[in-house]
């Protein structure tokens, strides 16, 4: 009898525990937890969503546009040639050259930037034009700058490769033809300027090497001796001003 009473008591305690835990679980599940709801197609225009997606895609390509569709390429290549011609491999540092090239690019691209700001960015911020119209106007302003610097032969290269007939005016050239042709033209111009910069320093190296050989100093590297004379020549002729002026005038 005592064992039967103990079993009944144990069962009552177990049932009471289960009922209490079930009630507690129900109360805890009724607590409002923070959540997030995602609705597709409710109050959202798909066209506006795609426009925002295109805008963010253009923003991710901003570094490439800055480097390849502006004057930055020509400026940084010429400055790099200038540093190598002097013989200072790390002076000025890369950060200084890139920063200098960036500010020179802002100076050269100021008319194009103002045109983009007045005709595309400001109307778009004021919601007077759509994203598509703003991007089209930005493209038109950049095309106006690239069209003045690109060579016809570089554009003709892409038409020869594709076998398409070249248009009568540069306005009819597609953008995906104009941009690579512009890059080739910028690199060619930068290398031409770099070649002209190398000539005086190359002559100075040859003179120093000839003098050292005449003096019998065969073991002394000519580069070590010519380095101070290169720096002196560059400072006396105010080289940075001349190089900067040549770069800026090349865009005219």
TrEMBL record:
Compartment(s) of residence: Cell membrane; Bacterial flagellum basal body
PROSITE patterns in the cross-refs: FLIP_1 (PS01060), FLIP_2 (PS01061)
Domain of life assignment: Bacteria
Pfam families per UniProt: FliP (PF00813)
GO cellular component: bacterial-type flagellum basal body; plasma membrane
GO biological process assignments: bacterial-type flagellum organization; protein secretion
This protein's UniProt keywords: Bacterial flagellum, Bacterial flagellum biogenesis, Bacterial flagellum protein export, Cell membrane, Cell projection, Cilium, Flagellum, Membrane, Protein transport, Transmembrane, Transmembrane helix, Transport
TM stretches of this protein: 50-76, 96-114, 195-219, 231-251
Classification via InterPro entries: FliP, T3SS_IM_P
Membrane topology, from the record: Multi-pass membrane protein
Entry's family note: Belongs to the FliP/MopC/SpaP family.
Physiological role: Plays a role in the flagellum-specific transport system.
Protein name: Flagellar biosynthetic protein FliP
Species per Swiss-Prot/TrEMBL record: Halobacteriovorax marinus
């Amino acid at each position: 009898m005592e064992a039967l009473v103990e079993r009944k008591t144990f069962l009552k305690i177990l049932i009471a525990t289960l009922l209490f835990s079930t009630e507690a679980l129900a109360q805890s599940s009724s607590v409002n937890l923070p959540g997030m709801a995602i609705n597709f197609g409710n109050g959202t225009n798909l066209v506006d969503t795609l426009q925002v997606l295109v805008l963010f895609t253009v923003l991710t390509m901003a570094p490439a546009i800055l480097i390849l569709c502006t004057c930055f390429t020509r400026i940084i290549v010429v400055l790099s040639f200038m540093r190598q011609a002097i013989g200072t491999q790390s002076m000025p540092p890369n950060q200084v050259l890139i920063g200098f090239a960036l500010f020179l690019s802002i100076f050269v691209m100021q008319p194009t930037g103002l045109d983009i700001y007045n005709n595309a960015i400001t109307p778009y911020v004021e919601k007077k034009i759509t994203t598509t119209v703003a991007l089209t106007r930005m493209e038109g302003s950049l095309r106006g700058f690239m069209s003045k610097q690109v060579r016809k032969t570089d554009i003709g290269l892409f038409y020869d490769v594709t076998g398409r007939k070249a248009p009568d005016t540069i306005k009819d050239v597609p953008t995906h033809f104009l941009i690579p042709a512009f890059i080739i033209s910028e690199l060619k111009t930068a290398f031409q300027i770099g070649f002209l910069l190398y000539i005086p320093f190359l002559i100075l190296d040859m003179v120093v090497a000839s003098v050292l050989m005449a003096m019998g100093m065969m073991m002394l590297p000519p580069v070590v001796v010519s380095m101070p004379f290169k720096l002196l020549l560059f400072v006396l002729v105010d080289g940075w001003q001349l190089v900067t002026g040549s770069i800026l005038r090349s865009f005219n």
